[in-house]
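Risk register update: the risk of archive-format incompatibility is retired. Evidence:
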Amino acid sequence: MKKGKTSLKSQKEEEHFCKQVALGRRMRNEFNKSLGKVNYVHIERERVTQIVVYPKRKTIYVTLEPKLNMERKMELVHLIKKKTAHL
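Archived output:
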């Protein structure tokens, strides 16, 4: 992480965030039959880009600098999916 950037500040916040990511996965799974499986989740915030990838049994959460261009972000999503497909 770059100097001056902030991370999740406390264990409690981190646990809460992880629970929210897990809840999001469960909620998205409800629509798998009708809409198909989620490939990835991409969230653009003012200070961070968040990517969530769902291999079979794991949840991979990555933060990126929001300045990255969309092509590079997509390259990273595809790389993450390729590297974690066996999980």
